[in-house]
Amino acid sequence: MGSPVLTIKNISKSYGGKGRAAKVLDDISLDIYEEFISILGPSGCGKTTLLRIIAGVEKPDSGTIESHIGNLKIGFVFQFPTLLPWLTVLDNVALPLRAEGVPREKAREKARRYLGLVGLSGFEDFYPHELSGGMKQRVNLARALAIEPNMLLMDEPFSNLDPLTAENLRSEVLDMWLSGVTTVRAVIMVTHNVDEAVSMSDRIVILTPRPARIARIVTIDIPRPRNRRSEEFNKLVDMVYEYVS
Questions:
Q1: Parallel, antiparallel, or unpaired: how do β-strands 214-219 and 6-15 relate?
Q2: Based on CB atoms within 10 Å of each CB, which residue in 66, 74, 86, 195 is the most buried?
Q3: pTM of the full predicted structure?
């Protein structure tokens, strides 16, 4: 698999205090390569907490996150589109670039490019309330990609979309990553959807109930594009369901 992009080493995390502390993560260690990883586990086991620690949004109680590439830059796609309603689609995507000090016109130019990449050319001057749920999530994705990250984190990005929209967006995300049209070298996605994990991932990391430990790592070596009706695919889905339950 080559050299890792990122190493997660002995990460532990608890919440609360004064006799009511709840341990969420317990000694999580994992090497991330240039791959698509899905994280599966029971509700409340700490999947999103782990993602937020990788992103640097939260600090672990112990353990380290070590980057093996210079200037690690992380894009984050949230479960719900966190768009500012008073800004146009273009300005929402340009916002993190402006926060980095990129001049206005250059930021808007980059924003246009990534909106085109997610299929939203022509919607630059629309406002969030004028978009469907799927379109809002495309804006969310464009904004994460516009900062040109080398790692993309996604927290249940398709869970609030209708099945057809979700399926289309899954395919497009996978195509963008595999084709190399973005700067992303590794993707980590939190999901509850076993079928989604098997269809998209190179590896699936399965966590135990809280406090989460890594119960098992499943390698998916079916060639892409994957046929969900194939016996091999369905055997893997059944196996992962067994491990999760």
A1: unpaired
A2: 74
A3: 0.93
